[in-house]
Design a protein that fits this description.
Elements lengths: L1 H30 L8 E12 L2 E10 L7 E2 H4 L2 H18 L4 E5 L7 H14 L4 E5 L3 H4 L6 E6 L2 E6 L2 H13 L5 H16 L2
Helix pairs in contact: 1-3, 3-4, 6-7
């Protein structure tokens, strides 16, 4: 039994190491558009405790500055960097997944401006392969969606409303400006929607 386990665990280790190389290469491609082209993402497969899932210790490491040694993801990367790395992992995984739906809760937290717009573009592209439901507070991301739902907590229950085109403009303007919606923020909301529709 020990010999059979060792053979199976060794085979799993070999597959993991091959998969780690493919993942690292795919991550490099996905991190570049997220403004992390200098980041070095590495999946390590080291000897670990034997168990029902093999005898490996698998970890994600990252170096966000050129020349810096890689370290554990949660200790090296800032909050915004962790958000982008986690999103890249989800994108790579979704490309090989058979799951019919991907749910992301604030995948854009800690990013803004052009990076938030890039996140929106990536999620839109991802939606060509699988359904994506994304909870977001970023207007750049919301504008890229095919459908926009407004979620409002109302006491003990939650209201979810599908927005029309005009309602989307108002909601995007509110996301941009808060309570002080002006004609300028509405115009910018229209621009975001227009750019999103012409880009696809």
């Amino acid at each position: 039994a020990d010999e059979a386990y060792a053979d199976a665990a060794d085979a799993l280790t070999a597959m993991r190491r091959a998969g780690a190389t493919r993942l690292d290469q795919a991550m490099a491609r996905e991190l570049a558009p997220l403004k992390m082209e200098r980041a070095l993402f590495r999946t390590t497969v080291e000897p670990g405790d034997a168990g029902p899932e093999g005898h490996d210790a698998v970890a994600f490491t990252v170096a966000t500055s050129p020349g810096a040694p890689p370290g554990q993801l949660n200790k090296i990367a800032s909050g915004g960097e962790q958000t982008r790395i986690n999103l890249a992992i989800q994108i790579v995984a979704a490309q090989r997944s058979e799951l019919p739906c991907l749910i992301l809760d604030e995948a854009d937290v800690g990013v803004g401006g052009t990076t938030a717009d890039t996140v929106g573009r990536i999620l839109r592209e991802l939606a060509e392969r699988t359904q994506v439901i994304c909870v977001t507070h970023a207007p750049q991301v919301a504008a890229r969606s095919h459908n926009h739902m407004c979620v409002i907590k109302n006491g003990a229950h939650t209201d979810i409303t599908a927005l029309s085109k005009d309602e989307r403009i108002e909601e995007l303007a509110r996301m941009l400006a808060g309570a002080d919606v002006t004609s300028k923020t509405r115009d910018y909301a229209k621009t975001l929607l227009s750019e999103a529709s012409t880009a696809h």
